[in-house]
Amino acid sequence: MIPSIAFHKNVSPFSALVYGAWRMADGADTSAQTALTKIERCLDLGITTFDHADIYGDYRCEALFGEALKLKPSLKQQMQIVSKCGIKLISSQYPDRRVKHYDTSPAHIRYSVDNSLKRLGVERLDALLIHRPDPFMNAHETGACLDALVKEGKIAAAGVSNFSVTDFDLLQSAMQTPLVTNQLELSLLAQHAFLDGSVSQCQQHHIRPMAWSPLGGGRLFGNDPVAVRLRPALQRIAQEQGVDIDAVAIAWLMAHPAGIVPVVGTNQLDRIGRLGDALKVKLDLETWYALWTLAAGKEVP
Ligand SMILES: NC(=O)c1ccc[n+]([C@@H]2O[C@H](COP(=O)([O-])OP(=O)(O)OC[C@H]3O[C@@H](n4cnc5c(N)ncnc54)[C@H](OP(=O)(O)O)[C@@H]3O)[C@@H](O)[C@H]2O)c1
Questions:
Q1: Which of 6, 7, 193, 251 would give a disulfide with 281, using CB separation of 3.0 to 4.6 Å?
Q2: Separation in Å, CA 142 to CA 109, 126, 180
Q3: How is the chain split into domains, by residue range?
Q4: pLDDT tens digits along 201-218
């Protein structure tokens, strides 16, 4: 069973693995019943935290998730929901938009949160993340808006995603409530956040980074040259420990002392069912660095 972990004193515990809903409306079967089956498969395993964004599936994923929950509303008590806002897509749903852009104004954040709550059919988000650093952000207005949303109970906590250390510090300096996470691209195929200070900053603030695309969005299984270099070692470890290579790649993130929480995105029920295998994998320090070295293509200096 995947355990729940203390995430931050301001929010209910999150599960140690989070299910990401980005791809939920992909593929031929986008019925509410199929979405419900995926949600229940996650909950059965102990994956109780679900990651959304207003824009996922061209603004359809939250609504699909909400439709699934309407089939079994009692599930809402068993889960935590994270969503994001701040990106404005070119979309048939917003025909007046001329360019994809960011909007972290209070008006847009409030509009987006209200829509997310309505689509998901919940009273409150367990965390709202600002999806991307916005070069046009007025940190004082954005920060005050996030604080107010926490006070009003529309969100339990605020966080960020893809923020540099400087952007994180700027927004935090304009807020009273603590930012509870920075959701970062982190995997064997995306090591930069380990080196640019983002993961270190989470340790400094005693908050957990969330890792998006922990399997490189599927690139780990394809022809990506780094993946090709890594796979024999991953396969050897996987075979020794009786799991698949995805479990090893996820375990590699979870082994890190920053307490990384991977956000997984498979749409396949059998793969969801095996996600708990990541917790069985034991990686000693040299094995962790052996994989780092293969991923980086060179030994550490
Ligand atoms: N904050 C951000 O900016 C940001 C950006 C991107 C994503 N995210 C979040 O992160 C979540 C996860 O992202 P992700 O979906 O890219 O994560 P991922 O788990 O790295 O990748 C999932 C993809 O890998 C494929 N896959 C998984 N296991 C496989 C295997 N054994 N063999 C072949 N293919 C395999 C899946 O295909 P199948 O479905 O066929 O298994 C799916 O297409 C998203 O849902 C979203 O919540 C956040």
A1: 251
A2: 8, 18, 16
A3: 4-296
A4: 999 999 999 999 999 999
